[in-house]
Design goal:
The chain is α/β, with parallel strands linked by helices. It has helices at 2-23, 58-70, 81-86, 104-107, 148-157, 168-176, 187-196, 221-236, 239-248, and strands spanning 34-39, 42-43, 47-49, 55-56, 73-78, 95-101, 110-112, 117-119, 121-126, 141-144, 162-165, 182-186, 200-204, 210-217. Helix 2 (58-70) crosses helix 8. The chain is globular and about 55 Å long.
Length: 251
């Protein structure tokens, strides 16, 4: 009887394990069990590197929590912003998480998750600068290549007035060295650089609100739905707001 009971118990445990495995979602990802992410980690407070070269920030914190909820381990791959946008489409990554603004032209490339934060464009300048949005076209504007700031600057002021850089850090260095007169960039990012670099200040603009989300290559509806469900929970319980405040107030 003891042997029979043991066999029945083992069988029940095996059935439970098989049932759990059957219920666990098997998302079609670049690497099984992982969420492979392309990012340009020079975009504080959204993503940047610490002294040990770990990618940290608002979006890494969010993705870590989303990964826990959907059962996928985040695998970050750092690259230039232009390359980060292309990576999901070429199958190199599952998702781009890099302060990506939802735009109609990008909807042809990606299936976007739900929006989790909204920002505006701002102008980063040296203290004492006479630059404002009205006279911006008289100056050389630094931007990060492929960003909405790059798009707006070229559309509004012409390519002759724009200098594009692969990374925001390079644009900020150009500003401090006098190679460009200002930088057009997302307001939260501009504020983060103004905190880090003495002598820089942020000027507001009248550009419209932009919504940030994560972009997946088209055709991964099950993964998209799972990420959205997890993201909605984090928004509803206040976690997203807590993370944003944490990094906005960080020195």
């Amino acid at each position: 009887m003891k042997k029979l009971f043991a066999l029945l118990l083992c069988a029940a445990m095996l059935c439970a394990s098989l049932s759990a495995l059957a219920e666990a979602p098997a998302y079609a990802t670049v690497e099984a069990g992982k969420l492979t992410i392309s990012t340009s980690p020079d975009f504080p407070p959204f993503e940047y590197t610490d002294d040990a070269d770990n990618i940290i920030g608002i979006e890494p914190d969010l993705i870590a929590l989303i990964g826990e909820k959907i059962g996928l381990e985040p695998n970050w791959i750092a690259m230039d912003f232009d390359a980060a946008l292309v990576a999901p489409q070429t199958g190199k990554t599952d998702i781009v998480v890099s302060g990506v603004t939802v735009r109609e032209d990008r909807k042809a490339m990606f299936d976007f998750t739900h929006t989790y934060v909204s920002i505006h464009q701002a102008i980063l300048v040296k203290e004492g600068s006479e630059i404002n949005q009205e006279n911006l076209g008289e100056y050389l504007i630094g931007v990060q290549s492929g960003t909405t700031g790059h798009i707006y600057a070229e559309e509004d002021y012409g390519t002759d007035h724009v200098a594009a850089y692969d990374k925001y850090g390079m644009a900020v260095a150009a500003l401090t060295n006098g190679q460009v007169d200002c930088i057009l960039m997302d307001d939260m990012v501009a504020q983060a650089y103004a905190k880090r670099v003495p002598g820089l200040v942020v000027l507001p603009t009248s550009y419209e609100q932009e919504d940030f989300a994560f972009g997946l290559a088209k055709g991964h509806e099950e993964l998209l739905n799972a990420i959205n469900a997890a993201l909605d929970e984090l928004i509803a319980d206040g976690t997203v707001e807590e993370i944003i405040v944490k990094y906005q107030t960080a020195e």
